[in-house]
Amino acid sequence: MLLSLWLFLYRQLIIHPTMVKVWLLALMILYNGFSLSVFGIHNSTRPEFVHIGALFSFNTSVGKIIKIAIESAVEDVNSDPNILGETKLKLSLQEDSKYRGFLSIAEVLQVMARHNVAIIGPHSSVTAHVITHIANELQVPLLSFSALDPTLSSLQFPFFIRTCHSDLFQMAAIADLVDYYGWKEVIAVYIDDDNGRNGIVALGDKLAERRCRISYKAPVSPEATPEEITNVLVQVALAESRIIVVHANTLWGPKVFSVAKNLGMMGTGYVWIATAFLSAILDISSPLSSDKMDEIQGVLTTRVYTPDSELKRRFASKWKNLTRGNTANGPLGLSFLSLYAYDTIYALAHALDAFFKQGNKITFTNDSKLLSLHGDSLNLEALNVFNEGNLLRKNFYGVNMTGVTGLFKYAPDGNLVNPAYEIINVIGTGSRRIGYWSNHSGLSAVPPETNHSKPGNDFRESKKLLPVIWPGDIYQKPRGWVFPNNGRLLRIGVPKRVSYRQFLSQVPGTDTFQGFCIDVFLSAVNLLPYAVPYKFIPYGDGKTNPSNTELVRLITTGEFDGAVGDIAITTERTKMVDFTQPYVESGLVVVAPVRGSETSALAFLAPFTPRMWFVTALFFIIVGTVVWILEHRVNDEFRGPPRKQLITICWFSFSTMFFSHRENTVSTLGRCVLLIWLFVVLIITSSYTASLTSILTVQQLSSPIKGIESLVNMKEPIGYSQGSFAKDYLIQEIGIDESRLVPLTTPEQVTRALTKGPQDGGVAAYIDQRAYIDIFLSSRCQFTVVGQEFTRNGWGFAFPRDSPLAVDLSTAILQMVDNGDLQRIHDKWLLSRACLTQGAKLEVERLKLKSFWGLYVICGSACLLALLIYFIQIIRQYYKHHSEEHHDSPDQNSGSGSTCLKSFLTFVDEKEETVKNRSKRKKMERISYRSSEGGSISINSNKDYVAQSSSCIADSVSNGGSEQVFIKVV
C-alpha cells in the first residue's frame, strides 16, 4: 500500500508539482497513525475510567464510615499516577435496604447494569448469599470486608472475594478463650440467618477440637421484638451453662444486652462473649452513653487486629478530618471496617494495574441466557457479562501490598494471611485489651507480630492473658455453670447391692442409702462452694447385684444424671461417661484355698536354692586353695605331707564360715584375700540365718494356684462376683472360656464354692476386686490372695461426658485425701480385725544366686589378682635362683623341658627361707673359691674382700645357719 502511494506521489510530482506538499503531509499523518496502532497497543488498552460499584446501607453508622473510607480511597488512588496511571476509578454507590435479601437482588441488578468491573460489598452475609449467584453468572467479583460467613469461601462462590478475615478464625479465637479458662460448655445466642447459623456451626467445630461444646443454641429472629428476645433469654437463664456467646450484627446485638440487663443476667456468675460486632460499636460510636455502657459491663469481645504502622497513623489522623461534621451525634470512630474498606479499594487498584499490564481489555457482552427471557419487564437484557472477570479475580488474589491494615496478601486457601484478633474487656466507660489471638500462636499477652518472629514453641511463656473484670464487677473467674434452674433434682443412680453392704446399702423402709460410698459422696458434695440438688434413685432388684456397666449406660440415655456407688473405672465405661478422681484403689485379685505346710527334716536347706548352695561350697574350696597357695612357701602351718595339706585346705575353708579358723596368715596377699572372703561369709551367714528364722517361725501356706497365669492353663471352674466387670475382662482380655466362669453373689456362696473345690461342684479359685476381698478374708483364714493384682482399677462417681460436676467433685475428693476425711470414713466402715494367719507367707522366698553374685564376683576377682601377683613374684625368684645355679654348674644347661618344669615345681614347693639361705651359702663358697685361686692380691682388695665376707657371715649367723665359714687371707 505504501509503495503504491509513493508511486502515485512520484507521478503527481511530475504532473502537478504544487500538490506534492499536500500529499506529503497526508502521508506523514497516515504513517504516524499506523505506527501508533502497531507499537502503542499496550497504552491503548487502559481506559480513561474504570467503573466500580459499592452496595451498602449508607444510612446506618456502619454504612457511613464505609462510604467515607471508600470515597477517600478512590480519591487517593486517582490522585496517585503510580498505581493506575492515567486511568481513574469511577465509583457508583447503591443503597442496600438494611440487609434485606430480596430487595438486594433488585439493587444489585442496578449496580450490575452500569458495567462495573467489581462491586464493593455487600455488608451482610445474608445479602452476599443471594447476590453471589448473580455475580457468578455475570463474572463480576464481589469484594466484601463485612460479609464474614465462613461458608462464603466455598468453591460454590468463586467470585466472592473476602477482603477481611473469615469468622472461622474469630470462632477459633473464642474457642481458645473458652478453653483457656477451663470451661467446657457454652450457650450460643445468635440471629437465625445465614451469617448467624453458619458462624455458630464454625464455633461448634472449633470447640469440639478442644473437647468443649455448645450445650444450648438460642436462635433469635432477625426481626425479633424485645418480648421475643426476652423469651429466648429466659430459656438461657434456665440452662446449666453460664458462658454465653452472642453472634449478631451492630443493629441487633445491643438489644440482647439490654434485655439481659433487665433480666438480671449481667450480674455475678455470668460470662458474656460477643463477636466483633460489639468492638465495632465501641470503636464507631465511642463514647457510648452511660446507660449503654452499663448494659455491657464485663463483656469480652473480639476486635480484628491491625498492627500499628506509619500508614495507619496517617490514615487515623486523616480520619478525624474526614468524619468531622458527618453526624449530629459526634464524630465517627475509626473501626476495622474503615481500614479494610480503604485497603480493599487499593487492592482492587493494584489488581487492575496488573490486569492492564498483562495487555487485557475490559469488555462486556450480552448474556445469552438472559436474552432468552422474553416478555418480562425487568429489563434483564441490560445486564452484561464481564468477559475478563475471571482474569481480574486471579489478579486480585495475587495482590501483595502493605496497607493501613498491614500485610495484604492471600494464602493458597483464599484467606488473608496472618489472621489476628484483640481480646477486649468492657469495663467502666471504655474497654481494655487483655490479650491477643493469632492463628500462629493462639492466645498471647504480646502482639502477634512479636510471636511471628519467634520460632516454634518459644512463645509458650507468653500464653497468658491479663486479669479480667467479669460481670458483677468481680475479679475471680466465674465457675461457668450452675444447676439448671428448672426445679428438677439431679437423679443419682445407686446400685442395690446384696453383698458387702458396708460399701452401699439402702436403709430398710426408706429411700435413703448408707455406706462407705455414700459417705464419701456426701462429704465431697459438702465441700463444694454451691448447693447440689439431687435425689438417690435405687437401681437393681435387690436380689442380685446389678450390672454397674448397665447403670453407667443409662446415664448416656438421660435416665440418670449420675451414679454413686462401687463403680469401677474401666476402659469401656470411660468411653460412655466421665468419672471423678478415684476414691478407692481396687484391682482384680485371685483368692484360693490354702493349707499350712509342715516343716521338713531338711528345712535347714530351704533358705538357699541348689545353685546357691553349690556356688557357695565351691567358693569355700576355691578360697581355701588360694590361701594355701599364697601361704605355702612362707607359713609352716600350711606345710607338711600332702595328706596333711589337703586336710588343712578343707578345714581352713569351712572353718571360716564360723570365723573359727586357727591357722594364721602371714603373707600380705593371703591376708587381703581372707579379709574379703570373711566379709562375704558375714553377708551370706546373716542372710541364711534371717531366712531360716522366717521359715521356722512363720507358718508357711501352700496352694497349687500361683496367680491368674495358673488359672489360664487350668481347666477347673472359676468363680467371679455376679454383676462385676470381671466376667468380661476374664473372657476378652485374659482369654478364659466363658463355660468355666461361675457367678457367685454373696460371701457365703463364695465360701461354700471354694471349700468344695472343683471336684465336688465348687470352684478352684474366686476373682473379685481387692476392696471386697479385704473384707472377705478378714474372717476367712482358710483362703488367701495368690499372685498379684492383675488390673489397676479404682472406684469413682460417674456423670455425663464433660460434666463440670465431675471436675468439682474430683477436686473435693483430693481435698478429702489431704485433710484425712477419706481415711476417717474408711476406718468407720471398712476397718475390721484381720485374720491372724494373713501374715503367713504363701510360699518360701528362697535366697537365689542373683542376689549375691556381686559379692562372689568381687571375691573371685580378688583371688585371681592375688594369684597373678604371687606367680609373678615366684617366677622372678625362680629365674634369679636358676641363673645362680647355672653359674655354679654350667653342665645343667642341657636339661630337658620336663627337667625344668620339675625344677620349677620343686622350687615352688620349697620354703622361701630355705631357698634364700642356700643361695647365700653358695655365694660365700664362690667368694672363698675365687680368693684361694687368686694368688696374691693387693692389700686394699683384701680389705674389701674381708669386709664383704664379714658381712655375709653376719647375715648367715643372723639367719640361724649352722655352717662355719672360713676365710683365708693371703
CA(first)-CA(last) distance = 154 Å
The percent range for helix content is 40-55%
Report the structural category. Answer: alpha/beta
Q: Can you count the beta strands?
A: 33
Coarse morphology: elongated
| Number of H- or I-type helical stretches | 34
Chain-averaged pLDDT:
82
Into which percentage range does the β-strand content fall?
5-15%
Q: Round the Cα radius of gyration to an integer and report it.
A: 52 Å
Low-confidence stretches: 1-10, 12-44, 935-970
Strand order of the largest sheet: 7-6-8-9-10-15-16-17
Describe the largest sheet.
8 strands, mixed
Structural features:
33 strands, 8-stranded mixed β-sheet, 34 helices, alpha/beta, disordered N terminus, 970 residues
Tell me what you see in this structure.
The structure is a single chain. The protein is of the alpha/beta class. The protein is 46% helix and 15% strand. Strands 7-6-8-9-10-15-16-17 form an 8-stranded mixed β-sheet, with helices on both faces. A 5-stranded parallel β-sheet has the order 2-1-3-4-5. The protein has a 5-stranded mixed β-sheet with strand order 29-28-30-25-31. The longest helix is centred in the last third of the chain and has 36 residues, at 853-888. It is elongated. The termini are far apart. Residues 1-10, 12-44 and 935-970 have low confidence and may be disordered.
How are the SSEs ordered, and which strands pair?
Layout: H1 2-15, H2 20-39, H3 41-44, E1 49-56, H4 61-78, H5 81-84, E2 88-95, H6 101-112, E3 118-120, H7 125-138, E4 142-144, E5 160-162, H8 167-180, E6 185-191, H9 194-209, E7 213-220, H10 226-238, E8 243-247, H11 253-262, E9 271-274, H12 276-284, H13 290-294, E10 300-304, H14 310-323, H15 336-357, E11 364-366, H16 368-371, E12 384-386, H17 389-397, E13 400-403, E14 406-409, E15 420-427, E16 430-438, E17 442-444, H18 448-452, E18 490-495, E19 505-506, E20 513-514, H19 516-526, E21 534-539, H20 548-556, E22 562-563, H21 571-574, E23 578-579, E24 584-585, E25 588-593, E26 595-597, H22 610-631, H23 642-655, H24 668-697, E27 700-702, H25 708-713, E28 718-721, H26 726-734, E29 741-744, H27 747-756, E30 765-769, H28 770-777, E31 783-786, E32 794-795, E33 798-799, H29 804-819, H30 821-830, H31 853-888, H32 897-909, H33 912-933, H34 939-958
Parallel strand pairs: 1-2, 1-3, 3-4, 4-5, 6-7, 6-8, 8-9, 9-10, 18-21, 18-22, 28-29, 28-30
Antiparallel strand pairs: 10-15, 11-12, 13-14, 15-16, 16-17, 19-20, 23-33, 24-32, 25-30, 25-31, 26-27
Helix pairs in contact: 1-2, 4-15, 6-7, 8-9, 10-11, 15-17, 19-29, 19-30, 22-23, 22-24, 22-31, 24-31, 33-34
